[in-house]
From TrEMBL:
Organism from which the protein derives: uncultured Thermomicrobiales bacterium
Chain ranges of the Glycosyltransferase subfamily 4-like N-terminal domain: 42-215
Main EC class the enzyme belongs to: transferase
Protein name: D-inositol-3-phosphate glycosyltransferase
Source species, domain of life: Bacteria
MF (Gene Ontology): D-inositol-3-phosphate glycosyltransferase activity
Length: 440
């Protein structure tokens, strides 16, 4: 056997080559059925949904367990062929803050175990999303002995580095995340820097941490005719348009974008409009909930006439919003990956993004978009102004963006994850990451 064929050490003293049959995915605090762009629902919800459906096309069945947060959703809902969302009773069947869920995790784990026992299911691998689900996977491991894959979708460690004092993540989350880096059988990081971070957090750094990005639906996100999209959306054909898409959360850096807009109002001619997609709006179209605070801030800053609060939109509406824009701003303080940037790129709309996390890997400065320092409103305004004022630059970046986005096609991403599952299910705890790294 050549060293390249070495399968790595087995875990229990035996290896199998049994095919994968079923996967349990855990998404305790937020459901893949939730509408995107509202509350906590964003990239992770989409990821759980898309990955599961992709994996299931290969003949696997996936059960996604999420906490029941209303009394009416049926216990099981088929998300796509082979994928079932299971609502698990743990605590009251009402929406609860994710900060209140930790004490409910043992009850959640017990209910998941009961569900599997009732149906006689034996899962090959558990895939846990976010630290709360990771703790459930760890509890289930006592019951099932099933290997588990952990994805944090942003660690407290990374978040705290950019959070204001009143936004710091709890000591409990920090502690559990550190323990999970040792307890999990594999960890998936969304970018190579996070992979290194997770290795550093482990007591003994291991090879079980893989950098595998999320995928993007390249059939949905593709170039569309800009004029037609603007007409569809009721936007003027002429106005320069900046677009923001995402959850309304301090980590998204919308405050910096508003400051940059103030600079552009003073300097740009014509003055651009900012379309802000995400958050909740009332029946009259006015911002409500967390978006209302942004509406007030825009008024205080004299920006109200320049910002259109669109509210959250189903994902299949977004290609038109991306295509209608001249440039997409992703001013985040941190992004583990930053799906919005890659979706925009796939639609051929240039991106101006913060140089942080996954964005620093997906956007190549000057080639597939422009990168600016985190929180630097002057630099953001300058970069947005450059793209708006220079059609040749816009065209060049659009071409580079489309080419770059193709690296994140779902089939390659799902194959890399499946490889991890297969290795774990067959008893290996080494050489879990596919040789073919998607990140260059
Ligand atoms: N999204 C959406 N509708 C909205 C706002 C966002 O479908 O109104 C989707 C968007 O297309 C993207 C995801 O939510 O796929 C946000 O992912 P991202 O990685 O940018 O941010 P996260 O939510 O993970 O912080």
């Amino acid at each position: 056997m050549s060293p390249d064929d070495d399968p790595g050490p087995p875990v229990h003293g035996f290896e199998t080559d049994a095919p994968l049959r079923s996967i349990a995915a855990l998404s305790v605090h937020t459901s893949p059925l939730a509408p995107l762009g509202r509350g906590d629902s964003g990239g992770m919800n989409l990821y759980v949904r898309e990955l599961s459906c992709q994996i299931a096309t290969g003949g696997l069945s996936v059960d996604i367990f999420t906490r029941r947060s209303d009394p009416w959703t049926p216990e099981t809902v088929e998300l796509c062929p082979g994928v079932t969302v299971v609502s698990v009773a743990a605590g009251p069947p009402t929406a609860l803050s994710k900060h209140d869920l930790f004490p409910l995790l043992p009850a959640f784990a017990a209910e998941v175990a009961r569900y599997a026992a009732r149906r006689g299911i034996r899962y090959d691998v558990v895939h846990a999303h976010y630290w709360l689900s990771g703790w459930v996977a760890h509890l289930l491991k006592h019951e099932w002995e099933t290997p588990f894959v952990q994805m944090f979708h942003t660690t407290a460690h990374r978040k705290n580095a950019v959070a204001r004092p009143d936004e710091q993540e709890s000591a409990l989350r920090l502690d559990i995340e550190r323990r999970l880096t040792d307890l999990a059988d594999s960890l998936i990081a969304a970018n190579p820097d996070e992979r290194d971070d997770l290795r550093d957090l482990q007591r003994t750094p291991t090879e079980k941490v893989c950098a595998i990005p999320p995928g993007v639906d390249l059939d949905l996100f593709r170039p569309l005719d800009r004029a037609a999209c603007r007409a569809d959306l009721g936007l003027s054909a002429e106005e320069p348009v900046i677009l923001f898409v995402g959850r309304i959360d301090p980590i998204k850096g919308i405050d910096t974008l508003f400051e940059a807009m103030q600079r552009l109002v003073d300097t740009a001619d014509p003055i651009p409009t900012l379309n802000l997609v995400g958050g909740e709006t009332g029946p009259d179209g006015a911002p409500t909930g967390s978006l209302a605070g942004l509406g007030d801030l825009a008024s205080e800053m004299g920006l109200a006439p320049r910002i259109r609060f669109v509210g959250s939109k189903p994902q299949d509406h977004l290609p038109r919003w991306y295509a209608a824009a001249d440039v997409v701003a992703v001013p985040s303080r941190y992004e583990s990956f930053g799906l919005v940037a890659v979706e925009a790129m796939a639609c051929g709309t240039p991106v101006v993004a913060s140089r942080t996390g996954g964005l620093a890997h997906t956007v190549e400065d000057g080639v597939s978009g422009l990168l600016v320092s985190v929180g630097d409103a002057d630099a953001l305004a300058h970069a947005l102004g450059r793209v708006l004022g220079d059609p040749a630059l816009r065209e060049r970046l659009a071409t580079g963006a489309r080419a770059a986005a193709h690296r994140y096609a779902w089939p390659a991403v799902a194959a890399a994850i499946r490889h991890v599952y297969q290795r774990l299910a067959n008893g290996h705890r080494a050489r879990l990451c596919d040789e073919e790294e998607i990140f260059a």
